Each structure stands twice: as structure tokens, then as C-alpha cells.
């Protein structure tokens, strides 16, 4: 999350909106953002019904928590990039290159 925050201007320059989605509550998001020193992009809660959005994107684990994944969705609502990551997420430069393809 801090990498996205650090490259906020680069994403904005590509007219991209960074969002995070997790099954944690809004209260947990607030505490997490505070621990990170502040998060300026929206942190969306898929708390209730638990994991419904994650299920729609096929990234909810059987244990009830989401897989670590990145989706790039264009302005028409079409998923243009989707990748699940076992350890971490890609470098922002890789995601910015994917945005250049739009």
C-alpha cells in the first residue's frame, strides 16, 4: 500500500484511480491507514456480505480472506489486466506500463 501511496502522482498522471478492497471492516481500514502514516486513496470494505466483491473477481480464498491481486479496469468497466500474486504485488513500474497499454 505504501508503494501505491509513494507513486500517487504517477498513477494520477495516467488518469488512474488506485483503490484497495479487503474483507476487513471500515474500522480496521482506518486503523491500518493510521499505522501506515495515512493512505490517500479509497480503501473499500468487502465486509458484508463477507467477500461478495472478492468472489465476483474470483479472488476469495476458501478460508474467507482475499488473494493478493491487482486489477486494472478501464473507464468502461472492462477488466484490462488481472493478476493474482502469491508473494507481494508487482512493481508500480509494471502496473504503470500496463496502464500505458490502455
Describe the overall structure.
There is one protein chain. With 102 residues, this protein is an alpha+beta fold. It is built from five helices and four strands. The strands form two sheets. Strands 1-2 form a two-stranded parallel ribbon. A two-stranded antiparallel ribbon has the order 3-4. The longest helix has 10 residues, at 26-35. The mean pLDDT is 93.
Strands side by side in the biggest sheet: 1-2
Mean pLDDT reading: 93
Molecular shape = globular
Number of alpha- plus pi-helical segments: 5
In angstroms, what separates the terminal alpha carbons? 23 Å
Order of helices and strands: HHEHEHEEH
**Count of DSSP strands:** 4
Structural class of the helices, strands and pairings? alpha+beta
Q: What composes the largest sheet? A: 2 strands, parallel
- Low-confidence runs (pLDDT<50, min 5 residues)? none
User: What value does the Rg take, in angstroms?
Assistant: 14 Å
Residue fraction in strands: 15-25%
Helix fraction by DSSP (H/I, runs of at least 4): 25-40%
